[in-house]
């Protein structure tokens, strides 16, 4: 039995079919009634708000006088397109989400000269996009998104076109010249276009990152979170300290936007039924504030879409994430008026999985507008890419309060990891300066204000050979330090990684001097005396001119002895740890000087202090050096890749390194003296004694467990916990 609610106007020959349902065991299902085909004088047919059963009846092909045919959201069956062949008077044709599987060749589009708006999105239409469609002289809005179109884009378009959606197809090739024409909205997201730099210059940037294989950051993630204050023109700090980015782009019926840090993106498609631009809002602002929410500002704006709104997380480290979506309905008043009858219903997908079907913000909020609600999901990111899709599937009330307030609506998004990230949420400062962001584990013993004070102190310590700390932020619960970014990476990569940098002797000598000057400043010249505690090649960064800069200084002060921070361990790094520090935990600047001695030798030798792949006797750099030094062949450790080097300087560096690594801290010169000796201003003290720790290695050399646990093993693995440090002390004590 059919139960139909049809509004038919004889005056205008319009028919609106609001519901046409057949009562079945499973509830309501609907079918498009066949009898429409026997009303050939109809000019306007619009079926909204139904989940019709397919296929579309062939009899509709009789309606050759139609100027408007709007049909959407057919739930089953498969339809072809041929039934529109003779509807050549159409100016407005919407067959969206109708399960049409066909090729556009089935219809001669040249005959549809009246078409102004054509929406065949969310079907399964195959083949190439015919030139005949793009040439239609009156066509303004074209939506062919979410189909299976292949091939290249046609060469020409009609000047009437204002908005074109080709997103989510299989289109390829480079872009035709019209693609970059001004005042054309063009959404090409999720295809396979070849985007040379020139091609896409006039399009919003970031399209490359939104092609099907999401090439940006694939395999090299930079972020572990993002948050967006949807539609907002100022960023907002949430009550949990999450920073919600601005999202003010006017997206219109077919556009996208990628954030300046290439951290997230958004894509919108869909034309509201009424064409008047004033109704076509994709951002709406609340007429009132939200006293009931801690984060009222998040809800003052919202993004809205007539069809499909997708947010993307870009360059995310793979893993398990929590996605929090926040909503509030404010398009419909709570007053007892007809406008309050408005219903907004949409679906939510995360990573392609349907999370909410027929989601209704107001219903979820207990039937109230202006009441915030949220939804939280866990999801897996496996290709450094996350997609949140809000999709209008035809339900709700498209004409309340006016046409143009239906479809998805969202106020804020935040995505955070359920794991400890290894990336740094890196990027650029808003002014374009490159930055590096370092994440610290949360400090348990320090309050926020102490943390802030400490960071301010560190930021005040500035020197040419120290990495500049721009500032800090607290992202959620995680403190982040924002440093200048140094493009030539770390010294350990340049020396013994696969970096393309080739360091000749003069460069190496300058790098040694630079590090020495930076350390001198920290120890002796800065207003706050700072012991670095973790000097190593990995903590020296190189700028464009190869000027060395010490990073991570001052971090030790932010933490307890026992606590660790993410990239470097507070107890120092094995191989660089001075014996008195390793054995008795005694920490003075002399521990830094010891570590600097190790770094100097690594630079001269072009190898790490320990390399277990080398022949016996060379595994430990210092053991090898001492054996050569005692035979007066110290220059034998110089990197064989150095075709030529200054022998006097190299020998001086070696001798200073031996002084710096003396077993007793008192025998090691202060940094200012080290600089003077390196530059030749001071004599290099000739008296060095072979430290006893060298002999200890020789005695214990064969014992693997001793090698990994003892400072003298010089392994490159970090001392990661205080438990291991204790073990280390005990082990060394026995030795
Ligand atoms: C189409 O219209 C013709 C006459 O205009 C009518 O005879 C025919 O039955 C209609 N077809 C359908 C399927 O309703
Ligand atoms: C569509 O679904 C309805 C109800 O579930 C079913 O009766 C009908 O046969 C289906 N049609 C097709 C073409 O699968
Ligand atoms: C369109 O009209 C032509 C000529 O009247 C007719 O032969 C053809 O079958 C019609 N096509 C459809 C799909 O109704
Ligand atoms: C399509 O229609 C145009 C305009 O009516 C006509 O010139 C052309 O021959 C038609 N093409 C085909 C393949 O029927
Ligand atoms: C889309 O069409 C192709 C070819 O007609 C078919 O193989 C495929 O299964 C269809 N996909 C869907 C989702 O209907
Ligand atoms: C869009 O197209 C894809 C196939 O490419 C399909 O799986 C999906 O269901 C379509 N619809 C939506 C709403 O994403
Ligand atoms: C920013 O948004 C507010 C509403 O929240 C709006 O009134 C204001 O005009 C907007 N400012 C700009 C510069 O767009
Ligand atoms: C993802 O994290 C959630 C919450 O931490 C957890 O319940 C879920 O089991 C995790 N899923 C996977 C696949 O790891
Ligand atoms: C989500 O909503 C629940 C229930 O209203 C609320 O208790 C919770 O604080 C909200 N979460 C966030 C992060 O806003
Ligand atoms: C530093 O790195 C940049 C980019 O990798 C490179 O172009 C430049 O040549 C490097 N500088 C030196 C001195 O090698
Ligand atoms: C070598 O460099 C590539 C690309 O920069 C990097 O992915 C790889 O991990 C590096 N390998 C080593 C051993 O450092
Ligand atoms: C360690 O020594 C081996 C053998 O000479 C060499 O292939 C490897 O590159 C060295 N490793 C490092 C990090 O220098």
Automatic annotation (TrEMBL):
* Residue segments, region Disordered: 715-735
The topology of this chain with respect to the membrane is: Single-pass membrane protein
Provide an example Pfam family for this protein.
PK_Tyr_Ser-Thr
**Domain of life according to the entry:** Eukaryota
PROSITE patterns in the record? PROTEIN_KINASE_DOM (PS50011), PROTEIN_KINASE_ST (PS00108)
The record, for PANTHER family, names: LEUCINE-RICH REPEAT-CONTAINING PROTEIN DDB_G0281931-RELATED (PTHR48006), OS04G0291900 PROTEIN (PTHR48006:SF97)
Protein name listed in UniProt:
non-specific serine/threonine protein kinase
Origin organism is Zizania palustris (Northern wild rice)
Species lineage = Eukaryota, Viridiplantae, Streptophyta, Embryophyta, Tracheophyta
